[in-house]
Amino acid sequence: MRNKAIVRKMPMPREMFPVASVIVSAVNSFPQLLILFVGCIAVGWYPEWQGIGAGLLGFAVLTVLGTALALLFSAMNVFFKDFQNIVATFQLFTHWIVPMIYPFEKLATSTLGHTVLYNLYLSNPLTVGVLLIQRCFWVPTIPPCPSPYTCLPNGDPSQLGYPNMPHHLFGLGFLMLAISLVILVLCQRAFSRLEGKFAERL
């Protein structure tokens, strides 16, 4: 919608506009990640391959899914002018459907643990992406346990597991990345089908 003059007059891949928005969002997020990284180092973060791998996988899941939704939502916004307001409302709910303002442990140890709702919660790629990024930044900052009988097995933060993190977090991450890639393909196909009517609608 912001580039409708260009879209109507110049032949070019229209996908470049929502993809550019994703890239801009990533660039805008970089200073926040830098502040987070500095803060984590200040409280004891140290590099470890599991954590770095989890962070890269988490960012990959969120980037692929974000690109897919950007393609779909931008196309929908051409046909339904108020669709951007629906997306803005949906963004407010994402703070509650992922463990951002509450720890995953609260959910895992509640009555929802290992139920259909719990499995549905973990089937959300956003949830798994957020948990992988927490595994990257949060886990290495946890101090060793004072005794082998408290908080972490063997007093080793790298062994942090359920209920602080879900079982098989990396397996879930790769599964969600595959699902996000499938969603990206489907959204790109939907975008291509609707693309022919963009100029007319704009």
* Form type: globular
Helix and strand succession? HHHHHHHHH
Instruction: Tell me the distance between the termini.
Output: 7 Å
Structural class by helix and strand composition: mainly alpha
Give the helix tally: 9
Overall mean pLDDT: 81
Largest sheet features: none
CA radius of gyration is 20 Å
Low-confidence stretches: none
Helix content: 55-70%
What's the β-strand tally? 0
Kindly estimate the percentage of residues that lie in beta strands according to DSSP.
under 5%
Overall tally of structural domains:
1
Oligomer designation = single chain
Gist of the model:
The protein has 202 residues and is mainly alpha-helical.
Descriptive account of the structure:
There is one protein chain. By secondary structure, the protein is an all-alpha fold. It has one domain (4-201). Helices cover 67% and strands 0% of the residues. The chain contains 9 helices and no strands. The protein has helices at residues 4-9, 16-42, 49-79, 83-97, 104-108, 116-122, 125-137, 169-195, 198-201. Helix 7 crosses helix 8 (169-195). It is globular, with a radius of gyration of 20 Å. It starts with a helix and ends with a helix. The model has no long low-confidence stretch (mean pLDDT 81).
Keywords summarizing the entry:
0% strand, 9 helices, mainly alpha, 202 residues
